Amino acid sequence: MKIRRLSAAVAVTATSALLFSACTSPAGGDNPADDESTAAPAAEVTCKPDLGDIETADGEIKMSIEDEFLSYNGLTPETYSVYNSAVDGQLFSNFWYFGTDGTICTDEAYGTYEAISEDPLQVQYTLNDEATWSDGTPVTYADYALDWAARAITADGKVTKDATEKALFNHIDGLTFGDYVPEGPQADSADAKTFTYDYERVYADWKIQAYPPLPAHVVAEQAGVSTEELVTAIEELDLPVLKKAAEFWNKGWITQPGEVPDPALAPVTGPYDLKADGWEAGQYITLEANSEYWGTPAATKNLTFRFVGADAQIQALANGELDVISPSGPTVDTVTQLQSLGDAVKVDTNQNLTWEHLDFNFKSGIFADSLEAREAFALCVPRQKIVDDLIKPIDPEAVVMNAREVFPFQENYEAVVSESYDGRYDEVDLDAAKEKFAAAGLKEGEEVRIGYSAPNPRRAAEVEAIKSSCDQVGFDIVDTASPEFFDKTLPNGDYEVALFAWAGSGQIASGENIYSTPGTQNYGGYSDETVDEAWKTLSSSVDEEVHAAQIPIIEKQLWDTLYGIPLFAHPGVIAYSSSLENVQNSASQTGVLWNAEQWVRAS
Questions:
Q1: Whole-prediction pTM
Q2: d(Cα 99, Cα 102) in Å, to the nearest integer?
Q3: CA gap 531, 562 in Å, rounded
Q4: Which of 201, 345, 358, 589 has an alpha carbon 20 to 30 Å from 189's alpha carbon atom?
């Protein structure tokens, strides 16, 4: 969950009482706010403010993202990234969104939902009668039936609890949804505006199980059937029809950089649409206000995403080539440089639900089958130096992060760490590292390729610090940064250690997809029975006591087996032109773009 990858689970204190609590949160002030489950330091819960009746203003706002747009379908492992989601997030509406602190807020202009039964769990969704695709087709149960199928049906046309089976659709979630809702969404007809999810067993993150759907009517047409026939095929597990549907879902929206998809194949439900001539490969992609949007219209007509590396964003902001930046991996000099721009720019920093980590490759290489080799590396990584030199100048409260599912600024962090980690890798111990290196049978000059998405000055500095330390043990640390890290290096396993960040939010159980067997975001191929079982127990409960018991089990086993090495929670830095209104920082994975449709240039 790119730069950054999505969906690190961070919230661990949902209670059974939350099952029937309102999904909405009160609109708040101008600062990031406390999430009911994360206890991040801030003011009050913040969802999007109601701007009242507005008309779309002419003009353009230019935002930086650091990588090329990949696909209208951002739900495949190959396209699921923060940068792709930055664009797709403006194209699709949904029942819910993350507020500034990870709180789950609802968009009642799109629809409403509620748990109408606790045992068994049954959740009812009601779409706004006016909710439509930009081609005029109503958003209906059919779209959610397709979304369920994409997360539930195996390659041989079954719904199974065995997540190791091959999925028919190339969805980032694999087969997880079918395990919880084996019968799929229930409705009276394909064009129904109301449907229910009937859970066979409770799922901790039930509030966020309705994804922004892809258009069922488009998939049906490409599969050679009507929308009603596609829904019937899903309900009856008609494999021949489903194979055709999956073939288009998996590949039909793949485009080449600069090639805007046919609007007939890529209708939208969000406040913005892809501009017909607005994509120049490697340079920018422009969105324009969706003229068919039924909700509050976009405040500004055009929103352009320019593909600009972190090292060039400040200058581009100063030159007026960008209006909003959110550089990943801000360096020691980032805030100083931004503040030097004076009153022309507003700068905001916050504590972020995103965290940096080093992950081992368990599929091949020297770390795959050797705990001692992984221990040798962990003992020489200068985590404290990295934090002191690169992070504390931005956030003086920054500390080395010793957990994955809770953050240092959360109230339960110390309790979790005390139960799961004994501090063995807090300080560099070169002598102990050399002993582990020898015990692993490694030879002097053993190459360790550390891959990450380039350019990224801060990560380059991290690798330099690791090399300075770990080469003394006998490793030969090689910086293999590449602009194609997430497209090729990571999925192909061309690394010994991967350096990137998970972008968190108010989720509870999404870490199961990262650490369990065979989680679709478990890129390194890690597998551990204790971790798998703990995740199953946690994800099947909304009881905070269950979560509190399982998180330390997971954390301890990930430390004892060395899945990887957490480094630090990211400091969040945004900057934007003083001429803009309604730009607001966010600690959640959607970042500053969480309310981009509300940005407008002051008159």
A1: 0.77
A2: 5
A3: 12
A4: 201
